Amino acid sequence: MEYQIQAPLIEEEIRQLRAGDYVYITGTIYTARDAAHKRMFEAWQQGEALPIDLQGNVIYYMGPSPAREGRPIGSAGPTTASRMDKYAPTFLDLGQKGMIGKGRRSSQVKEAIVRNGAIYFAAVGGAGAILSQVIKEAEVIAYDDLGTEAIRRLRVEKMPVIVAIDSQGNDIYEIAQQEYRK
Amino acid sequence: MREISCGEITECICKMCIQAAHFLSPDMEDILQQAKEKEIAPLGKQILQQLQDNLEIAGRDMIPICQDTGMAVFFLEVGQEVHITGGGLEDAVNEGVRRGYTEGYLRKSVVRDPLDRVNTGDNTPAIIHTRIVPGDKLCMTLAPKGFGSENMSRIVMLKPADGIEGVKKVILETVDLAGPNACPPMVVGVGVGGDFEKAALMAKHALTRETGKHSEIPYVEELEKEMLAKINDLGIGPAGLGGTVTALAVHIETYPTHIAGLPVAVNICCHANRHVTVEL
Ligand code: SF4
Fold it and tell me: Strand B154-158 relative to strand B262-269: parallel, antiparallel, unpaired?
C-alpha cells in the first residue's frame, strides 16, 4: 500500500501503517546520528533540556554532504540505524514517534516501538541524490560544532520511505527476506 | 628516470575524488541495469529503479551518489623508473584529497583519532597502499569507501582442514550478517590466503576489479559463480527489503599461504562501488 503522511506524526495515522508499506512523508523532521545521539543522551542523563522537543517527532539518521550554492543540502541518504539502538528506546519513551534509517534494529528498539506506538521507516541507502531533492529547507539547530553530525531541522516534501518496523512490531527485514530465501 | 611532480599528482587526485563521488564506472552502471531486469520482487525492482534515477540526478545536478563519500582509499603502483619531484608522494595525495573533498562539496567523514573522534575537517588522511612496480608510470586507483558496508566486513583465520567448504561458509555468513546495513545489492570482495593483512588487502583490492569480470584461475572463477548464486538465494534483496538480487558480483583474489593457515577476508561494498583509475 502507498500512503501520504504528515510529520510530526499523528498516532492514529501511523497505527494503520504496516511493515512493507510505501510512504511519502511531508512536513518537518530532524536529523541526528551517532555523535548527536550520544550528546543528547548524556544531556538527558544529566537532567538537562534536550535541544529538540521529541514529542511526536521523527529523527532521520543522516549526515549530509555539504550543500552547493543555492541548495538547502547536499547528498542526504540514511545511515545504519543499529548504531543508534543504544539510545533509541529512551528517546521513544520520551515521546519520539518515528525514526528513519537503514538496516535491522535490536529487540530492545522493537519493544520500545510497540510500547510507544512508534514506527521505524527505511529510506533507501545510497540514494542520497534523490533524497536530497525532497528536502526543501535545512537549518542547523543544535550542536553546530559536529559538522555533518549536527542536528538539523528539515522541511521535506514527499520523502519516499518504506515501513520497516510498524507499531505492532512487524519487521519487514524478517518478513521479506523469508519470502525470497531459498 | 621520468619525473612526475607532486603538483600534477595533487591536481589529478582532486579531480578523481570529485568524479568518484558523482559517477559510477560504466561496468557498475551496466550491472545495476542488468540487476533491475533480473530482480523479481516488485519492491526490489522499484528500489533498483530508484538507484538508477539516483545516479542520473547525481551526475546531472552534481549531488554525490551517496552522502557517505567515504574514506579515500588508494592503490598506487609506482614505476621504479619514476622520480617524484617537489615533495612527498603521500603529502601530494593527501593534498589532493583535501582539495577534492572541499572543492567538490564532499562529506568529511574522517576523525583524527579513533577514540577522541574529532573530525579532521578535510577528509584526510587517506589510506594509501603503495607498490613499486617495473616501468616509468604512476598508476593511481581511488576507491572511496563508505562505512555502512565496511563495518560489515570480516576476517577469519580458518584452519587448512576447513578447506573450500570453510571458505564458502565464511563468505555466505558474512553477507547474511551484513544484510541491509551494507546497502545491497553489494559487491563482495574476498581475499583467500597470504597472511592476516594480505588477506584483508586482497579483499579490498578485489573490489576495484571491473565488476563481474571473473578471476583467471578456473577454480576461483567457479567459486565466484557459485558464491554469487548462493548469495542471491539468501533473499536479502535490494536495500535488504527482500528479493533475488543481493549481490552484483563476487570477486576473489588468492595468494600462497603458510602450511598452517587459511586466512579468509571478506570486504563488503555497497552498490555505490566507486572507483577511478588514472595513469600518469
Ligand atoms: S554503505 Fe555505501 S551506499 Fe550505503 S550509505 Fe554507506 S556508502 Fe552509501
Answer: antiparallel
Q: What is the pLDDT of residues B237-263, one digit of tens each?
A: 999 999 999 999 999 999 999 999 999
Query: Nearest residue CA, atom 3 of ligand 1?
Result: A126
- Compute CA distances B6 → B81, B87, B123, whole Å: 16, 6, 19
* CA nearest neighbour of B189 among B162, B209, B218, B170: B209
Q: B14 by DSSP, 3-state: which?
A: helix
3-state helix, strand, coil in chain B (%, to 5): 45, 25, 30
Substitution candidate for ligand 1 out of B152, B183, B241 with most atoms within 8 A of CB: B183
How far apart CA A42 and CA A87 sit, in angstroms, is 10
CA of B122: which chain A residue's CA is closest? A147
Mean pLDDT, chain B, integer: 97
Active site residue A43: no
Distances (CA, A) of A78 to A20, A82, A88, A123, B52: 17, 12, 16, 6, 17
Exposed/middle/buried for B134, CB within 10 Å: 0-12, 13-18, 19+?
exposed
If you search the block for the grid coordinates 570486504, which residue do you land on? B267
Q: What is the pTM of this model?
A: 0.94
Does B47 have pLDDT greater than 90?
yes
Measure in Å the smallest separation between the Cα of B210 and chain A Cα atoms: 20
The reply to whether B257 and B165 lie within a common domain is: yes
| Cα–Cα nearest to B94, from B126, B70, B64 | B126
Cα gap A60→A151, rounded to integer Å: 10
The verdict on B82 and B175 lying in the same domain is no
Q: Are residues B89 and B114 in the same domain?
A: yes
Report the largest interatomic distance among the alpha carbons of chain B, rounded to a whole angstrom: 58
Summarize pLDDT for B123-144 with one digit per residue, the tens: 999 999 999 999 999 999 999 9
B177: left (phi over 0), alpha (psi -120 to 50) or beta: alpha
Mean pLDDT of chain A: 96
Q: Please report the pLDDT score of residue B1 as a whole number.
A: 87
**A2-181: what CATH class?**
alpha beta
What CATH number is associated with residue B123?
3.30.360
